[in-house]
Each structure stands twice: as structure tokens, then as C-alpha cells.
Amino acid sequence: MSKRENWGSKLGLILAMAGNAVGLGNFWRFPYQAAKNGGGAFMLPYFAALLIIGIPVMLVEWSQGRYGGKYGHGTIGPMVYLQAREGTRPRNAIIIGSIAGAIAFGVTVLVNSYYNHVIGWTLGYSYLSLTGGYMDTAKSTGEVFVNYIQSPTLVMTFWILALAGLAIAVMRGIQKGIEAWAKLMMPVLYVFGVILIIRALTLGAPVNPDWTPLKGLNFLWSPDWSALTWTSVLGAAGQIFFTLSLGMGIIQNYASYLKPDEDVVLSAVTTVSLNEFAEIVLGGTIVIPITYAFLGPEGLAGGVGLSFISLPNIFRNMAGGQIFGTLWFLLLFFAGFTSAIAMYNYLTALLEESLGMERKKASLFIFALYIIAGLPVGLEAIITKTDTLAYFTEVDNWIGNYFLIVLGLIEVLVAGWLFGDHFLNETNRGGHWKIPAWFFNVVIRIIAPLAISIILIFSTKTYWEVGYLKWIPSFVESTPQLVPWVVAARVVLIGVLGFGFFQSYVSIKEKYSQELRENKVLERR
Amino acid sequence: MSATALVFMVTVWVIVIGVAGYTLSQVLKYGDD
User: Fold this and answer.
1) Closest CA to A175 of A8, A349, A3
2) Is A274 close to B20, i.e. CB distance below 8 A?
């Protein structure tokens, strides 16, 4: 195998990792989750989940990635195997590694299959904002959005453009591609965020004297304890996984390009803190004050539509709306692009590693794969002429929400209990900051896996209660024509996970065949 | 905006911006050594 690349500079690495973590979820999902789950009351479980799940899992993923990179791996199956074999027999470890590999493969293929479309939408809407494409008040912004997702020209053009941008970046490699784009896009994203905050807070009361941006902030930051339920706790924990890009294998992939003695702890904590700045300060202060000022408290219940329906409606009525609309959708595009690139690179690394393919060729192959995987997402609304997006919803419910938590649990259990004490030395090696033994023994080994297990049990219970586990899930009960799309999503899910398991298993077996034959727990060095 | 909400928001902002600024300054301090 050819020598693996490293990051060119520390700042480039941090910006690429922050770009990996900062995604659409920071600006789109967080305000909606916070508003739905009691505003200020949501922030308490959110911070608790950040401290007991987010930071420990982020440390584990950075450490696991650097460790795997030392052995020439950029994918999670072999990484988890390498750590697991120090606490259990290799033939058990390969199963654990293959399950982890299957989930990461599922996430990077399937999450990106719809994530790339959403990025395409943000690019398309940047174009529409700039050209005044939704400014005509004769048509509601809801209709504009439905027309957009049902238009083959618009959907396909901006989707392919976004994908081509990703392909070019990944093709150019870690330093010249991913790092270079992150160094450009991330500072611009933060600057756009600050400009939009200033605009949001200086809107006054354009529609109703009671609807001011500050009242919007009041709504977000006043704890409504009656809205604090198990559902909001689950929402907060899910948000932490989603916002930090945990349980996907992509943090490990980026960390695999670290030099063997490069710092892990300070870099991981910096990634978390830059993500939280983007989420809480920027994400929390753009959408909610703007929406409140124009649409009042009811406007905040918009969910997905908040970005693509409510906000365009506001931009068309706002002074300078075309410019601020463009900034908003470009901000979303940069946030999504720098996360999607990590998933793209994961699969490119997988081909480089398991088939010895060259990066350029592998990148083109993944481009074709994403076209195939993304077609059902793009075609569903065009064919069914509905905006329910059942295929997208089913895939997202499982792989985009549920399996992230399962993979996070596997990672901390392997690091804490199978890799064991060696994890502490491995993580702290070469570090500017070091994690104390008590943090490893109490938080990483006990509290984090316990908290994730509780979240997993209650998520399963919630899925059962809301009817996601039924043969015909609740969200398509009233639209039988969409049932085949749900069935297709399930077939694809099982197929992709099965292939991911097989690929990881074969890849580990080929490289570590001798120790698998001997099947002895590795002696600690 | 109520006093409770304002205090809560400002406290969280100060912590988040402070931690992000401090960690980033540490990364820049150590640079690429």
C-alpha cells in the first residue's frame, strides 16, 4: 500500500474536523429541536449529553482513528478490530469490527445519498435567492419548494454540481483537497453566520409589535419545564450524535491521517468547542429570531420546512432579502459540503485500502455510487408527485438516527473495556493535553456506555410506540402508494448493511489472517 | 426578554465562546510542532 497522506497543518486539520462536525444539523435541526422541546429546558439535557456522551465519544473516535491510521487503516472495521483483539479473541473481535464497519458503510453510503440532495437544494436555493427565484409573491414558498423537489432539471442539476464539487475535492487528496476547501469554507461560514446574526437582531418588529427578534431569543432561552420529557432528553442526545458527526466512522477516518504522535485530546476538544459555537451561538441566533419576528411563535413549528419554506417567505419580505437569503443558503451549503466530504472520503479510503485503488479512480467510483444511491431520493418526489419523501424518511429514521447510537456504543465499549488501560496511554501519547485516569475509568468506561445504552433502549421504545417498527410505518399509513418506497428503503438498508459487514470481514481477514488462525488474545505491550 | 432568559443565554454564550476561543488559542500556540 502506498504511504498514507497526513494533514498539512494543525489549523487545517482543526478546520477540516470542525467542518466535518459542523453540518446542516447545526443550523437547521438544532433550532427546531430546541424550540420543540421546551427552549431553555432543552439546553440542560443537551449539555448533559454533550459532557457525558459527546466529549467522551469524540475522544474515543479521534484516538481510535489515529491508532488505526498507524496500521494503514482509514475505515472503522479494522480499527475496531485492532482494539477489540486486545481484550477478546481475534475471531470475536472480527465480528465486532465487521458490525462497526457495516454501520459506518451504511451511514456513509445512505446518509450521504440524501444528504447530498439536501446540499443540492441549498445550492439551488442560493441560486434562487440570488436571482430572485422565489421572490414572486403570487406563489407561496411552500409551492416553490414542492415545485423545486418535483423538478428534474433543478434537482438533478444542483445535486450533480454538489457531487462534482465533492468528487474534485476528494480527488485532490487530504491536503490539497479536503484541507484546502475547509480552510476556505469554514472561516467564510463563520463570517456569514455573524452577518446573519447582526441582521436577525436588528430586524425590529416588521409584522406585529409583539413579534421581535429578542422575544424569539426569549422563547429559546426561557426554560419551559413542562416540555422537558423523556422525548426531549432523547432529542438532545440524538442531536449530540448528529451535530458532532459521531457514530459514523468519519471522525476516525480524518483522525487516521494524523501523524502517529500528533495531539489528540486538545484537538478533539477544540473540534467540539468550534462545533458548539456554530450550533449554540450561530445556529440558535439566526433562524429563531428571524422566524419569530416575521411569523410569531407558531412559525417555529415548521421543522424541515423552516429553512426551505418559512425562511424564503421571510427573505421575500425583508429589506435586502435576496442578499441575506443567498448568505443563508450558502452558509447551509458550506456546512453541508464540509460534512459530506468526510463521508465521501471514508468510502474513497475504503476502496484505496481494500482494493488498492488509486485515489482519483476511487473518487470517480464513489461519484458513480452516490449517483446510484441518490437516485431513489431524487426521483421519489418527481415520480410520486408528493412531498412526503417516504424513502428518505425511512432511511433517515434508521441509519441517520438509530444506528449512529449503536455504533457509538460499540466504540466506547471496545475502547473502554477491550482495549482497556492501553486506551489511556494511546490517547495521551504526544498530547498537548492529556485525559486523567479518573475520566477514563469513570466517564469513558462507565457513564458514557451506560448513558448511550439508556438512550438506545428508550429510542427503541419510542420507535415501537410511534409505529416505525410496523410493516407499514405510521408515516405512510394514510398514503398506501408510498409503501413500496418504504419497502425499497428497507431492502436497500439490509443490502447495504449486509454488504458492509461482508466487506469489513473480508478486509480484516485478509490482513490479519495469521492471528485469526491462532485466535489468541493479543499480549499487551 | 426576561431577566432569567437573558442571564441563561449570556452565561452559556460566555462559556461556549470562551472555551472555543481558549482551545483554538492553544492549538495556534502549539502550532505544527
Assistant:
1) A8
2) yes
Looking at the DSSP bridge assignments, the partners of residue A39 are A223
**Residue A303: its pLDDT value, please?**
62
List the single residue in B with minimal CA-CA distance to A210: B1
Burial A148-178 (b: 16+ CB within 10 A, else e): bbbeeebbbebbbebbebbbebbbbbbbebb
A520, burial (CB in 10 Å: exposed 0-12, middle 13-18, buried 19+): exposed
Written as nine digits, the cell of A495 is 443490502
Residues of A within 8 A of B2 (CB-CB) are: 218, 222
Pick the closest to residue A27 from A217, A203, A202, A282 (CA basis): A282
Smallest Cα–Cα separation from A182: which of A194, A166, A197? Answer: A166
Q: What percent of chain A has pLDDT over 90?
A: 67
- C-alpha Rg value of chain B to the nearest Å: 14
B19–A276 C-beta distance less than 8 A? yes
Q: Nearest CA to A251 among A56, A454, A96?
A: A56
Q: What pLDDT shows up at residue A524?
A: 62
With contacts defined as CB-CB under 8 Å, which chain A residues touch B1?
Answer: 214-215, 217-218, 221
- b/e burial code for range A480-501 (CB count within 10 A of at least 16 → b): eebeebbbbbbebbeebbeebb
Mean pLDDT, residues A349-353: 95
| Residue A127 · residue A144 · CB < 8 Å | no
CA A204/CA A189 separation, integer angstroms = 25
What is the pLDDT averaged over residues A170-175? Answer: 96
Contact across the interface for B27 and A277, Cβ inside 8 Å: no
The fraction of chain A above a pLDDT of 70, given in percent, is: 98
A336: which 3 cell numbers?
A: 453541508
Question: Closest by alpha carbon to A108, among A61, A60, A76?
Answer: A76
Mean per-residue pLDDT, B17-27: 96
Do A287 and A311 meet the contact criterion of CB atoms below 8 Å apart?
A: yes
Name the residue of chain A whose CA is nearest to B14's CA.
A281
**A213, pLDDT greater than 60:** yes
In terms of Cα–Cα distance, which of A106, A98, A112, A107 is closest to A495?
A106
